[in-house]
Amino acid sequence: ELAALVAEFDKQGNKMISCADFMVRFTTLGCEGRDAARLAQLEKQRIQTATAQTEAALKKKSLDDKLEIDESDLQFSEEDTNSALEKIRTLASNYDRSHPSAPSLQGFVGTD
User: Fold this and answer.
1) pLDDT single digits (tens) 39-86
2) Residue 15 has what pLDDT?
3) Closest CA relative to residue 66, chosen from 58, 77, 75
4) By C-alpha distance, which of 71, 93, 89, 69 is closest to 81?
5) What contacts 11, CB < 8 A, 6 or more positions away?
6) How far is the CA of 18 from the CAs of 5, 26, 63, 97, in angstroms?
7) Contact 63, 47 (CB under 8 A)
8) Helices within 1-112 (DSSP H only)
């Protein structure tokens, strides 16, 4: 290994390595190595960011698709209406707004 280093850094061919030449080449190699590692990490981060954005967009689209109401789901009978209203009456009669665990009805204020 030493012979390979001497051959690499011996510019004059006298079997001696100049300290200045060695330090310049050593520093250059170190910078190149760090730059390569930094660029690899940056590219990896870009790929992860793009993947996360794609996954987030797909998830949002999936959730948006679930929110769409199908016209056929809006068909209901008078019996369905009466059943829903009876359930609401039962719950409303048991509602105590002064109870600590009672949910706020502020969201319903001012709505039509």
Assistant:
1) 999 999 999 999 999 999 999 999 888 887 776 667 888 899 999 999
2) 80
3) 58
4) 89
5) 18, 21
6) 12, 12, 67, 88
7) no
8) 2-9, 19-67, 78-94
